[in-house]
Design a protein that fits this description.
The complex is a heterodimer of chains A (383) and B (155). Chain A is of the alpha/beta class and 383 residues long. Chain A has 13 helices and 12 strands. In chain A, 42% of the residues lie in helices and 14% in strands. Chain A binds chain B through residues 301-303, 305-306, 309-310, 313, 326-327, 329-331, 342-347, 378-382, and chain B through 1, 5, 10, 13-14, 16, 19-20, 30, 34-35, 37-41, 56-62, 64-65, 101.
Chain lengths: 383, 155
């Protein structure tokens, strides 16, 4: 039995996407920067992929830079924009629940002479707009708030944040990696100046993503040494990846209207069953301001990693917090930021459903969880 | 992150030995707490100078449970002196190795053992102090009674 409920960590490559990529892993191998016919044919495909992505997300394609993923894109945007706009100021604001690739990059910048403020969130993981407005100053260059949180799935009001940020003349960056295809994203209309995302979160290949920096905003490259991506990102184009990203994005939004109600019904059914079958559970965040595929649950009195391992040995794959935070084995700063009690910080599991999950899988997961939780609680010292 | 457990660790996690808590134990002790991410509670029963029984409760990850299971199996039947010398490397070696970031679990299990043994010894020494005190008091009382009776006799 293999039940994969860790789709926020990564997703399975869609066979249709793989099919679209295959020619570029085979006969269409030429370098898209080469000026001969083979290269230029690939260059047309590359630019066509760029147009596709820009069209779906409501962006100006001239500002789209393909990267190795969202971590690189976030590094590029934060470092590049802060560095290039020092004449305006050296002040950066990031939310308290950003992904480590934003949070840690902000910390690095803070150690290197930039000023960083952390914008707080409420108990549901939503940015406190009034506090954010107070933090923005005339020398604030960039405000970074993720569209959807990777651990608790909380959805921000991007338009409202953009309005506050722009009132003060700063730029608004949003990491939208967990928002595709859960939110309809016309980024220009929403007022998002910069964005970052990664293909493998929406059934595309790993190792490819993109950064968007609205044309007109100054930025420095993260990787220099080539003229690719208008000099913003040196390195041979990862064409199979870029084609895969565009194809995956197309499929994701084409099937969105069917997928969303289906995954939401499944997720709500899952939560309903859990509440019926198990006691001592708490939902982290609320159901209302949350993407349709996410559940983050506190199982009181037992430790999250033990739950994860026990489930894993039963063939059910979940996560404690995010896969990235699992690396340092520390409790989640996201759950801490939404005010979870210290005693509950190590008892949480993130379930992230996806395109290929079924009701039967949810039933089997609930049955497995019942066994896991009662076994572990039987010898917990926590009263 | 590489977090591949050996089959021995997985088995000890899935079927841990000596779980629970001993009723009216000779000593009990805990290390850690849920805020830190793991907690182990040991209880022991001692007969003579040997650990007759030892049980544990765990709020912790798979290796926390597995290491406590192995340790309790190992020290059950040992003398207190032998158990005090038991070290964490032995647990790791019995499990066939632990992922680097999980080695601390074996140290935590040893710490819990040391604490429960210390609690036992402290109780023992308190008890012997108490005996001593009781004997002294009884003696004093006796002597004062004798004194009193002597005084009575005198009066």
């Amino acid at each position: 039995m293999h039940i994969y409920l860790d789709n926020a960590a990564t997703t399975q490559l869609d066979p249709r996407v793989l099919k679209a990529m295959m020619p570029y892993l085979g006969p269409k191998y030429a370098n898209a920067s080469s000026i001969h016919a083979l290269g230029q044919s690939n260059n047309l495909d590359l630019e066509s992929a760029r147009q596709t992505v820009a069209g779906i997300l409501g962006l100006n394609s001239a500002g789209l830079v393909f990267t190795s993923g969202a971590s690189e894109a976030n590094n590029f945007i934060l470092r590049g924009i802060m560095q290039a706009n020092q004449a305006k100021g050296k002040h950066l604001i990031v939310s308290a629940i950003e992904h480590p690739c934003v949070y840690q990059t902000a910390r690095v910048l803070a150690r290197n002479g930039y000023e960083v403020d952390i914008a707080p969130v409420d108990k549901n993981g939503l940015i406190d707009l009034a506090s954010l407005a107070k933090l923005i100053r005339s020398d604030t260059v960039l405000v970074s708030v993720m569209a959807v949180n990777n651990e608790i799935g909380s959805v921000q009001n991007l338009a409202a944040i953009a309005k506050i940020v722009h009132q003060q003349g700063a730029y608004f960056h949003s990491d939208i990696v967990q928002a595709i295809p859960y939110l309809q994203l016309n980024l220009s209309k929403l007022g998002v100046d910069c964005a970052s995302f990664s293909a493998h979160k929406f059934y595309g290949p790993k190792g490819v993503g993109a950064a968007y920096i609205r044309p007109g905003i100054k930025s420095e490259p993260l990787i220099s040494g080539g003229e690719q991506e208008n000099g913003y990102r040196a390195g041979t184009y990862n064409l199979p990846g870029i084609i895969g990203l565009a194809s995956a994005l197309e499929v994701a939004y084409k099937e969105r209207s069917l997928y969303l109600p289906r995954v939401k019904t499944l997720r709500d059914y899952f939560w309903q069953c859990l509440r019926k079958e198990l006691s001592g559970l708490k939902l982290n965040g609320n159901l209302k301001n949350r993407v349709a595929n996410n559940l983050n649950v506190c199982f009181s009195k037992i430790e999250g990693e033990a739950i994860l391992m026990d489930l894993s040995l039963k063939g059910v794959y979940v996560s404690t917090g995010s896969a990235c935070s699992a690396h340092n084995l520390k409790s989640s700063y996201v759950l801490s930021a939404i005010g979870l009690a210290d005693y509950d910080l190590n008892s949480n599991i993130r379930f992230s459903l996806g395109r290929y999950n079924t009701k039967r899988e949810i039933d089997l997961t609930v049955a497995a969880l019942k066994k896991t939780v009662s076994r572990l609680r039987a010898f917990s010292p926590v009263k | 992150m590489s977090l591949n457990y050996t089959n021995k660790t997985i088995n000890a996690f899935l079927k841990p030995k000596n779980i629970g808590s001993i009723k009216n134990p000779d000593a009990l002790a805990s290390v850690g707490n849920p805020v830190c991410g793991d907690q182990l509670s040991f209880s022991i029963r001692v007969k003579g100078d040997r650990i007759k029984d030892i049980k544990f409760l765990s709020f912790g990850c798979a290796s926390n449970i597995a290491t406590a299971s192995v340790l309790t199996q190992q020290v059950k039947g040992m003398t207190i002196a032998e158990a005090k010398k038991y070290d964490w490397q032995k647990i790791v070696s019995i499990l066939g190795g632990l992922p680097q970031q999980k080695v601390h679990c074996s140290m935590m299990a040893i710490e819990a053992l040391q604490r429960v043994l210390a609690a036992y010894e402290q109780r023992l020494s308190l008890a012997s102090d108490k005996k001593l005190t009781i004997t002294k008091i009884t003696k004093n009382k006796l002597s004062s009674k004798t004194m009193a009776s002597k005084q009575k006799k005198v009066s």
